[in-house]
């Protein structure tokens, strides 16, 4: 008789093993034990397996009960996947665990599959090659001895743990039979995301309670094509943690930590498309998840249609930048100075969302932010009056470049401090009165780069107070005057007549 106890608290296990044990527990929870060649027990932290048959027969039965091919897609009946869910799971597994052609056989002729993402938009077409055969449905080699018993150590490769590379000194990585069994069910516990440029993100959750996780996994298993797309690996990790945080059934045993494997091509090896490029270890506080929840609602992916009638899913450029900051423990607007300068990051179409995100500024950040916007408002009023006197409209494109250039040109702390003080002094506003000490601390302290980010954010998100909170369709930026005169005015803002 063979007996295996797989515990998520076993000190010899790693995060992938613990997630694999959870995947095994999920499969077993859906099976009938009466007609099975094995018996099992599931507790909050352990899966216990018993069987009287040989190890090969027991494992074959387990694997065939877990994995199937349905309509050309890899399916796990325990997950109760929908049509889109089957596609995202199958595509995710075959692009990560089974990325190598030796581990799966695909139909040579691709076919188009349509998905409905938005009710009022056309369906999205994706090209799909049907799955014919794969590693999980074949006879395992090098796993059993001549008596169909588990070998004492089993070689582990990339199709067991994506990104695993053989050690050139010590050879292949090896696992015990218990560790090998756990890794076979790891794909069931993971989430998969298609990133930009053909890269993939594999998210492995930290499971603390098997029974609670099983209930939650069933609720989240039906992922749509929109859920399958993510702008970055860091965002993919935050998305999983947010889903767990919003689950009422897991307030005590929710997933609070996960690891994200970013898989893609490396410059030194163009033949393999799924090498491990980076590993993100994501743990987020309630405050971080609150900021991210606002960001994901303000910068959603949208279905767009080309001139030829082809629909595609447009992914936000701002969301991955915010997510990367949050994952790295930084404020959400960190490096907005660099982000704004990049020609590929056009914030014009996502400006309203960026304005709404400023509600997450802390009181001490709001001080500098309001001071810059107040000075900018005063300046805008003066330029509007000047344009009216000259009988011409305000040239927004021109003045935007000049204002941004004035405040983003400085590259050192001293240069930036001088430029910002000159701007705030020349265009004095109510918002900056009595705050000289606070502003001094911002621009002369260690966080002067953060102050520069806030300054650029304040200008990029400026809107007239007379608009009742609605952002103007164009950026209300104005031309820098040539005179050195000091202006002091009411900073209620400028409003363009439309």
Automatic annotation (TrEMBL):
Protein name according to UniProt: Type I-MYXAN CRISPR-associated Cas8a1/Cmx1
Region of interest (Disordered), ranges: 465-498
Residue ranges with Acidic residues bias: 471-498
Signal peptide feature range: none
GO biological process, one term: defense response to virus
